[in-house]
Amino acid sequence: MVGNKRQMEMIQFIKERINVTTQELMEQFNVSDMTIRRDLKKLEDDGHIIKFHGGATIKEKDSSSPVSAEEFSNYDISTQIRSASYIEEKRRIASKAVSMIEDGESILLDAGTTTFEIAKQLGEKKHLTVVTNGINIAHYLLGKPHINVIIPGGDMRPSSESLVGPATVDFLSKLTVDQAFIGSAGISLERGFSNSNMIEGSIKSTMIKIAAKSHIVADPSKFQHNTLYVYANFEDVTSIITNKELDEKIKADIMNKGVVDLILS
After folding, report:
1. Whole domain around residue 93: which residue ranges?
2. In this structure, is residue 65 part of a structural domain?
3. CA-to-CA distance for 157 and 201, rounded, in angstroms?
4. 226/195 Cα distance (integer angstroms)
């Protein structure tokens, strides 16, 4: 049972944004930090949300708790659960990615939680064309001034809120974009970039091929993990955008390869 109208509106607000910070909730509902924390505790106790440090994400009906980052590389985890982990790291990666985007460019955003954070920071950019197979990304950008959104056809995949399949690949293969920002469930020096789902992996491969510059966006938890489907090698992409907390040995090994730029946020 939801306690009051504000809490009902809060659930809807969190649903629309996938994850939110306490500060965002304070500004949206014009109440104190203490009130927000009390509301979030009530909503979590009632099973509507999952709290994380500094914010909250919506809770899926079939999910009892967030999973650890280590489990991401082996399972096809839903968007809502993945977005509750490493949120600050993803936002820093997104900030760095957005700083690389010029007004007037065409960019491609892969479906994913880090790319969703990129979408949320595009507000100051002008005359952008954004191609995305992320349903949540397209919905978020809907109606934003100066941003033209293009979505491909395909089969809707609820767990990742994405459009996938042969129709998606066919549509994307006919495009050319300035930059692509692509998530990765696994990154290893031996095998390259991998994904837990073969269908989504083929989409990522196509995205890399149609972009003048392609960037892998991934927090440090994704490194030294191998997942089911390898969709690209290091030499196939322009850069990897990650966090400065990445293990020093991994940083050195990637730089020694000399085939991809390593950008730290």
Report:
1. 87-264
2. no
3. 13
4. 8
pTM: 0.72
Indicate whether 118 and 217 sit together in one domain: yes
Q: Are residues 156 and 92 in the same domain?
A: yes
Residue 71 has pLDDT above 80, yes or no: no
pLDDT tens profile 95-150: 999 999 999 999 999 999 999 999 999 989 999 999 999 999 999 999 898 999 99
pLDDT value of position 23: 83
Both 113 and 29 in a single domain?
no
Closest CA to 51 of 77, 78, 25: 25
- Give tens-digit pLDDT for 214-232: 999 999 989 988 888 999 9
Q: Which long-range contacts (CB under 8 A, 24 or more apart) does 153-160 make?
A: 157/199, 157/200, 158/78, 159/76, 159/77, 159/78, 159/79, 160/76, 160/78, 160/79, 160/111, 160/112, 160/197, 160/200
Q: Are 149 and 119 within 8 A, CB to CB? A: no
